[in-house]
Amino acid sequence: MAMSKTEMQIEKVCDEIKELLISKNRKYGNSALKPNRIFSKCSATEQLLVRIDDKLNRIMKGAGLLATDEDVINDLIGYLVLLKISMPYEKSNEIQEIAQSIYGKGFKSGNVEIQVQDILDHARDFD
């Protein structure tokens, strides 16, 4: 089935955002998802939410800015894509911390030694 004009525009815009994100990732490293945490100790997800808040605040304060500055829109979409990527990592880290608080580094019984990661990997089989 041939794509409609709107579908082709969606594909074009998504490809542009993809190229923007890949270009910035190569230029700055994976700083959005693995920040250096020099001043802020917040998670990557929380830091992305702050960036999104800042971008939305600038849009709200700069009357007409949204209509004239496509970079603002592209940045906001980019941050939202990165947020979507970061959320499963955040959940995984949260689960890892909970498991470590329950099991410590793991446990040993006789000749059997089980690490926290083994427990989590086995639990994922039931998802």
Descriptive keywords:
127 residues; mainly alpha; two-stranded antiparallel sheet; 5 helices
Low-confidence stretches: none
Total count of domains: 1
Number of helices: 5
The biggest beta sheet reads: 2 strands, antiparallel
* First-last Cα distance: 35 Å
Description:
This protein is mainly alpha-helical. It has one domain (5-124). Helix content is 70%, strand content 6%. It contains 5 helices and 2 strands; from the N terminus they run ααααββα. It has helices at 5-28, 44-61, 65-68, 70-103, 116-124, and strands spanning 106-109, 112-115. It has a two-stranded antiparallel sheet with strand order 1-2. Strand 1 and strand 2 form a beta hairpin. Helix 2 (44-61) packs antiparallel against helix 4 and helix 4 (70-103) packs across helix 5. The longest helix has 34 residues, at 70-103. The model has no long low-confidence stretch (mean pLDDT 80).
Task: Give the topology.
Layout: H1 5-28, H2 44-61, H3 65-68, H4 70-103, E1 106-109, E2 112-115, H5 116-124
Antiparallel strand pairs: 1-2
Helix pairs in contact: 2-4, 4-5
Brief description of this entry?
The chain has 127 residues and is mostly helical. The protein has five helices and two strands.
